[in-house]
Amino acid sequence: MQVQCVLCDTIEDIKDSSLQAKRLRNRRIHMYLCQQCDQRIYSNTKKRHETGNFHLYEGKKQKKDLI
Fold first, then answer.
1. Which Pfam families match (predicted)?
2. How far, CA to CA in Å, does 48 sit from each of 25, 29, 32, 37, 57?
3. What phi and psi, each to the nearest 5 degrees, are found at residue 16?
């Protein structure tokens, strides 16, 4: 299966029987990142975590009363 990286537009081949190929076929929302882009994002995110200025905010959960 040929896939294209969403960031750098390189085209790569992955096995048709791999889990990643199955996810890309069945769920169109999943995106493919090549190894170089994935490593670059991982290292930059790790640097931001180490500075302490990186926060993940979760949405407020509403309490549902079933009574």
1. DUF2197
2. 33, 26, 23, 17, 15
3. -65, -25
Distance in angstroms (rounded) separating the CA atoms of residues 45 and 27:
26
pLDDT tens readout for residues 15-43: 999 888 998 888 878 888 898 999 999 99
- Residue in this structure with the two tokens 């959960």, named with its chain if needed: 61
State how far the Cα of 58 lies from the Cα of 48, in Å rounded to an integer.
18
Tokens matching residue 28: 């169109």
Which pTM was predicted? 0.64
What stretches of 1-67 adopt beta strand conformation (E)?
2-4, 11-13
**How many other CB atoms are there within 10 angstroms of residue 32's CB atom?**
19
